[in-house]
Specification:
With about 675 residues, this protein is of the alpha/beta class. The chain folds into 3 domains: about 300 residues, Thiamin diphosphate (ThDP)-binding fold, Pyr/PP domains (Rossmann fold); about 190 residues, Rossmann fold, CATH 3.40.50.970; about 130 residues, 3-Layer(aba) Sandwich (Rossmann fold), CATH 3.40.50. About 40% of the residues lie in helices and about 15% in strands. It has 26 helices and 20 strands. The chain has a 6-stranded parallel sheet with strand order 10-9-11-12-14-13, sandwiched between helices. Helix 1 packs across helix 2, helix 16 packs parallel to helix 17 and helix 21 packs across helix 26. It is elongated and about 95 Å long. The protein starts with 7 loop residues before the first helix and ends with a helix.
Length: about 675
């Protein structure tokens, strides 16, 4: 029962605080300060505003919550436990940060039901939230009717000083302001402390004015530690503004209640210690043992289960009426949310013959995107201000803009990192959208964190990368990727594909779309320069990662392995070697990752161990290829930066010619 000195609300807030304190103390690891300071705003949000169903965490029309300041994850785990999610029990909280626990050191969407996106690298969460809000706006514009609203939810975020310092948040919030995402509401935990101490040492800008300049609606709650009414009033005001996202600056005290450590960096990322916990319990009048929650709190916050069931039942009725009136739209909606692809979707992907015109693979990519867009309404995306270089416009589907959210071409501006994180948010929205983001391959360096997180968090994003080698030409080494493919191939769960011609481009998109629906990302690398279509390429071959495009009778004397723009060099060199009496196999390896996923028998059939004479040809670094060429093989590669010259000149000067491939092969043959 609430006591005279503690209201029920205070008991709930202190329960959140002490679950965090006790879990971090037991683990001897974690970040108690943020949960202690942000507990009031989080309690108000979950208790009064959030619409969700703890017993069905994937209910479509739930509000999405993102803890962008993911180091404070015990805040979220406490909320999930107290509101009745089955994914987090008190035993899970006791196992915070332990092996195989459902309460890892930062929130992971694939580990804990109720966690929408994986956060921790600061700024990623707020950028993901922009993607979540864009997905909501797009689907609402596509499916809602004047007499039936089936897509209607908010995206709420708690972010901190660190998130606001990271550049990705600025990129994403700038774009959110431009798009006027009125259902995006961010609560900024303004506590003025980071790991190095007071933020005064490095961060003194006026964040509110910055967000106003972005086009956000900005509010301030000066007393975020205790003024629950002001927090609630601010959220209500935020919801009333429908044409702008809202940032609510909530000024708090990190580690609130700790007599000696609150408002210091000491409570940011370390356990309080037994003595300080005892003082904090005394200071906040908390008489309960570790991990004990008052029954009044469990009863009150557990009402979220009943509310959630009611929210979902109400929505189900609305949806049933919608389905009766708009059966065709409902069928599309249900397919999207189910994550299924329509039958025969891949039949639209073209194949080519050697007689077809040579084109850049980026042009074939454009063809694939447009053919797929016609049969996959879930395909949405765009470029980081390189639409007409990446060739990523899906024609006839309009530009996603404020008030035109039903359209499918997204202009991210020169914001590669935000583009990546926003696409991940859209992919993780749970509505079956397949987002794609495009730039030059070299600029994956600007979005590496988001690409890595797409792989880690099982986000079905597609990364469309063009200008994939020194063949990019005149822009020079700043724009010519040499080490990039090798570094991307090192990311687990990211499928990297570098197709050689039009047919292989179709194969790459077949793989990428299918993997997106399996909650996995793909990265496609396309050429700027024209490439011939080759007789032996196939869509099926691409799906296996590597396959023979030219073969011989019996055991080959030598195997030439090529990718992308260099495969045709291997094919022509093989013709010359064959004319000289050599038995040659040419293997196209558009995806090392997919080849490694094949069984040993298939791998042996493509690259038999008995054939030790091998040459790999790729306009990038040799790193990674030695696994496939062995000690008797050689690489035609570039282990230095490129140069500014026409693309053809660069390729010639760095040895990517038929003559050099032929000479290298002869050297290997001895």
């Amino acid at each position: 029962m609430a006591t005279a000195t503690q209201t029920l609300e205070e008991l709930c807030i202190n329960s959140i605080r002490f679950l965090a304190v006790d879990a971090v103390e037991k683990a001897k690891s974690g970040h108690p300060g943020l949960p202690m300071g942000a507990a009031p705003m989080a309690f108000v949000l979950f208790d009064q505003f959030m619409r969700f169903n703890p017993k069905n965490p994937k209910w479509f029309n739930r509000d999405r919550f993102v803890l962008s300041a993911g180091h404070g994850c015990m805040l979220q785990y406490a909320l999930l436990y107290l509101t009745g999610y089955d994914s987090v029990t008190i035993e899970d909280i006791k196992q915070f940060r332990q092996w195989n626990s459902r309460t890892p050191g930062h929130p992971e969407n694939f580990e804990t039901a109720g966690v929408e996106v994986t956060t921790g690298p600061l700024g990623q969460g707020i950028a993901n939230a922009v993607g979540l809000a864009m997905a909501e706006a797009h689907l609402a514009a596509k499916f809602n009717k004047p007499d039936a609203t089936i897509v209607d939810h908010y995206t709420y975020v708690i972010l901190g000083d660190g998130c606001n310092m990271e550049g990705v948040s600025g990129e994403a919030c700038s774009l959110a302001g431009h798009y006027g995402l009125g259902k995006l509401i961010a609560l900024y935990d303004d506590n003025h402390i980071s790991i190095d101490g007071s933020t005064d040492v490095a961060f003194t800008e006026d964040v509110s004015k910055r967000f106003e300049a972005y086009g956000w609606h900005v509010l301030h709650v000066p007393e975020g530690n205790t003024d629950l009414a002001a927090i609630a009033k601010a959220i209500e005001a935020a919801k009333a503004v429908t044409d702008k996202p809202t940032m609510i600056k909530v000024t708090t005290t990190i580690g609130y209640g700790s007599p000696n450590k609150q408002n210091t960096a000491g409570v940011h990322g370390a356990a309080l210690g037994a003595d300080e916990i005892a003082l904090t319990r005394q200071n906040l009048n908390w008489e309960y043992e570790p991990f004990v929650v008052p029954q009044d709190v469990l009863s009150h916050m557990g009402k979220a289960v009943e509310r959630g069931a009611s929210y979902e039942a109400e929505w189900n009725k609305t949806y049933a009426d919608y389905k009766a009136k708009y059966a065709d739209d409902a069928a599309v909606f249900e397919r999207l949310v189910s994550g299924k692809l329509p039958d025969g979707w891949d039949k639209v992907l073209p194949t080519y013959t050697a007689e077809d015109k040579a084109l850049p693979t980026r042009k074939h990519s454009e063809t694939c995107l447009n053919k797929l867009a016609a049969v996959l309404p879930e395909l949405i995306g765009g470029s980081a201000d390189l639409t007409h270089s990446n060739l990523t416009e899906i024609k006839g589907y309009g530009d996603f803009q404020k008030g035109q959210y039903q359209n499918r071409n997204v202009h991210f501006g020169v914001r590669e990192h935000a583009m990546g994180a926003i696409c991940n948010g859209m992919a993780l929205h749970g509505s079956g959208l397949i987002p794609y983001g495009a730039t030059f391959l070299i600029f994956t360096d600007y979005m590496r964190a988001a690409i890595r997180l797409s792989a880690l968090s099982q986000a079905g994003s597609i990364w469309v990368m063009t200008h994939d080698s020194i063949g990019q030409g005149e822009d020079g080494p700043t724009h010519q990727p040499v080490e990039t493919l090798a570094s991307l191939r090192a990311i687990p769960n990211l499928t990297v594909l570098r197709p050689a011609d039009g047919t292989e481009c179709s194969g790459a998109y077949k793989v990428a779309i299918a993997r997106a629906k399996e909650n996995a990302p793909s990265l496609l690398a396309f050429s700027r320069q024209n490439l011939p279509n080759l007789a032996g390429t196939s869509i099926e071959g691409v799906t296996k990662g590597a396959y023979a495009v030219v073969d011989c009778q019996g055991t080959p004397d030598i195997i030439l392995i090529g990718t992308g723009s260099e495969l045709s060099l291997c094919v022509t060199a093989a013709e010359k070697l064959t004319a000289e009496g050599k038995k040659v196999r040419v293997v196209s390896m558009p995806s090392v990752d997919l080849f490694e996923a094949q069984d040993a028998a298939y791998q042996e059939s493509v690259l038999p161990k008995a054939v030790t004479k091998r040459v790999s040809v790729e306009a990038g670094v040799s790193f990674g290829w030695h696994k496939y060429i062995g000690i008797e093989g050689a690489t035609v590669s570039i282990d230095r930066f490129g140069a500014s010259a026409p693309g053809g000149t660069c390729m010639e000067k760095f040895g990517f010619t038929v003559e050099n491939v032929l000479a290298t092969a002869k050297k290997v043959l001895g």
